[in-house]
Task: structure prediction
Amino acid sequence: MKKITLVLDGSADRPNAALDHKTPLEYAKTPNLDALYRKSLSGTCLTIPDGLEVGSAVANLSLLGFDPHTYRGRAIIEAAGLGLPMNDDDLYIRCNMVTFEGDSFEGSRIKSYSAYDIATEIAGPVMKELAAAVYDDEYQLIYCGSFRNTLIVKNGKDLYPLGLEPAHDIIGQDIAPFIKTSGKQAKFFELMKASYDFMQDKGIAANGLWFWGDSIMPEIKGDTRGRVALSETLLMDGITTIAGLPNIGTKREGRSFDDFLKEKLDKATRAVREYDDIYVHIQETDDLSHELEPVEKMQAIESIDHVFLGDFLAGIEDDYTLSIASDHFTFSDTGAHGAEPVPFLFYDSTNEREQDGRFTEQDCRDKNYRITAAELKAMQK
Result:
């Protein structure tokens, strides 16, 4: 019996005026997903325990069956995914290249949390110059591709946690309320301001950095025998690296989403033949939420249904269980994450069910069946 999990990152949302006051899941045409839903058990799943960070790291740890309470921040997980040196005594911080609008750093708003997914060949030379001009061996800035950087603070473990706000949660807001000029955060806002000043005349979409996701080494443990993950993000690469979980990567950058999905489909189909427990993660729906693109998010959901899901299901030759869920809510009107229980379905090819409805937030809520991520994982035979 194969155990399959499909995570549509950040696909859960709330109604949006651009979609006739429907959510992207409600508006999208998803015949394959709808047919599967009608043969499944469904409800809502708590992926983010109370008090933990609302985001993909905690949610995916939960859905993978690892203990989310071992999470100690995001940046070191992404650093592990890149193969950067890991040190138990250091502090690691995620540094987004962002697009600010405003006349000064203090008077700015974040217009794009990723500098519009700036290309590596454009960003790389500027980040190399910035690292040499503003940073040093104690505060080491390492460029990681596209809009991503990691700051390694030597012997900075005791500074954790800093409580820095994620860039994608404050798009369009004044950053002034989040700036700290005293205490342990002050040095990092000094570095952000110095980076902003340095980047003003570079003629690229990114005109500053925003720090967040400060972290120290976690301890992610669990049985990984017969398991594999199919990821496309540094975060998932890092989780699997630290956990010792085999990972088959697929990169989205530089091509259409449909072409990406075709490669993902091929790899996922082969993984089902070779492994017993398969975790497939698709990121696009979350990225489009953060960019405040509800229509494009809806279209991405349709593509997942049309290009990936139907052929994937048709290619499974063994009996299997399949869980499909959003890892968390991501709101395409604000770009922020939400921690409420997410819609899920659970299909068992040896025990098909009958129910009405579609795979939407409200239809899953209406089932009045709520479980935890650990309970969802335990349902897999």
